[in-house]
Amino acid sequence: MSDAMMAPRAKVEEKxxxxxxxxxxxRPHIKVKAHTVPSPSLMAMTTLCPAGCYTQTxxxxxEVAADGCLECGTCRIVTRKTGExxxxxxxxxxxxxxxxx
Amino acid sequence: MGEFSKPFDAIVVGAGPSxxxxxxxxxxxxxxxxxxxxxxxxGSKNVQGAILYADAxxxxxxxxxDEAPLExxxxxxxxxxxxxxxxxxxxxxxxxxxxxxxxxxxxxxAQFDKWFSSKxxxxxxxxxxxxxxxxxxxxxxxxxxxxxxxxxGAPIMANVVxxxxxxxxxxxxxxxxxxxxxxxxxALAVKEMHFLPRETIEARFNLTGxxxxxxxxxGTITKGMTGTGFLYTNEESISVGIGCIVSDFAETxxxxxxxxxxxxxxxxxxxxLAGSECKEYAAHLIPEGGYKAIPQLTGAGWxxxxxxxxxxxxxxxxxxxxxxxxxxxxxxxVVSLTRKxxxxxxxxxxxxxxxxxxxxxxxxxxKYKGIPDLLHKNKGNFFGTYPRLISQAMQTWxxxxxxxxxxxxxxxxxxxxxxxxxWGMMGDAFKLVRAWx
Lengths: 101, 437
Description:
The structure holds two protein chains of two kinds.
Chain A: H1 10-16, E1 20-22, E2 30-32, H2 40-48, E3 54-56, E4 62-64, H3 74-78, E5 85-87, E6 95-97
Antiparallel strand pairs in A: 1-6, 2-5, 3-4
Chain B: E1 10-13, H1 17-28, E2 33-36, E3 51-53, H2 54-58, E4 73-82, E5 87-93, E6 104-106, H3 109-122, E7 126-128, E8 133-138, E9 144-149, E10 156-157, E11 161-163, H4 170-174, E12 186-195, H5 198-205, E13 211-219, E14 227-233, E15 237-245, H6 246-251, H7 256-264, H8 270-273, E16 277-287, E17 298-299, E18 302-304, H9 320-339, H10 346-349, H11 351-357, H12 360-367, H13 371-377, H14 379-398, H15 405-420, H16 422-436
Parallel strand pairs in B: 1-2, 1-11, 2-7, 4-13, 11-18
Antiparallel strand pairs in B: 3-6, 4-5, 8-9, 9-10, 12-15, 12-16, 13-14, 14-15, 17-18
Helix pairs in contact in B: 1-3, 1-9, 9-11, 13-14, 14-15, 15-16
């Protein structure tokens, strides 16, 4: 299959629209700690996050927007040694609500 | 939560298959059980392929078939090795699987877990939803005596805490009961739910009534990473997904979404999904480290079940049955200690591990203890070279083009030898046999 046939990044956001979420406004459950240069592990999250929550800013830092988070925990495990993110489960009842799972 | 002044016999953290099995078994035996689940309902945070193995549930709720939300019973298993344009399949279909008490079912976890949770409540356990356990409470000797949650109030006390908190297992890890999961021993899987009319599914997969088909696939679909793809038929939907080891993913630039899109667009998969409507996109981690990755399972006042204990047989794609079995066995251990009025000490709870050793759970995980390392270290061959070679051999063999069969045989063997060398193949075969035993 050619790369052209592969889905563009944007499609992840479209897919997330199918899902149900109860967003805990103003209380994100994942935070990236302040940094100047992201480690390779943190950088990897910009492609590895299945919900596309991680992006690199123009100045080179990695930031997270966790509203579409699927709560898989991949970022927590990948950055466990660098300690660059703070990961908690959303408060009880908040976050993704799988209809089918 | 000051209202719970008297300690519970047991607190169960999590309402997935292992937690529900544990809570149900203890409550049915008359223990005073509190179960705490962070989701709005049981299943709202849970993701699985999903196949339910009847045997493990039958040992807990023998009459489950009368009431559990089941999709289709599996009559056909397709194992595919794939390259970019083909699949070579081993299919097993038998009318024997159309039995009075079928052996395997496809299920939708959000619905199934909700049902299982209702049984836990019927059995007499108290279930708190929308509540996240934040930490364990220990006494001065280090014994676990209760939990704190994200709700206001005093800690909730219990004689024993059953940790059924899943693969991420924050509570146990943060309390120092076990190490953080390593990226090499866990797979990230993404999955979509595709809806189609049931007649379409039945016609497309050659099914009648509630019969179902499952496809497990490996090969170039994971782009050199250790992983597998799957496609399961539900009543009016198809679950399609793909998963790879997290450390492999981290080394590539392929996004999980792209990998799933490529799998869905593979010429062998695409027609099976044609015209369907996707209604959910999910992701979850699967513990795949096997026997060697199992953490400490018991200690003073605590016991670990399900994914939190790495109880997944990755070779056979089994997990929920190991979860339910570990949940049940842990519960039986706690029930027996409670009845004998024995301490929930580390020494007494170790009985759980002894009992588990007698079950298929530990026997199977032990049998395959070398497989995760083998596949991971030889991923280029097992997930790339061999699938390509097999496809090329099949094509050479089946294409009729005027070339005689002896020449075809020679060209197939030459291709294997040149690509992988005789020593390489013998080594792989030897390693595989040794790891399989």
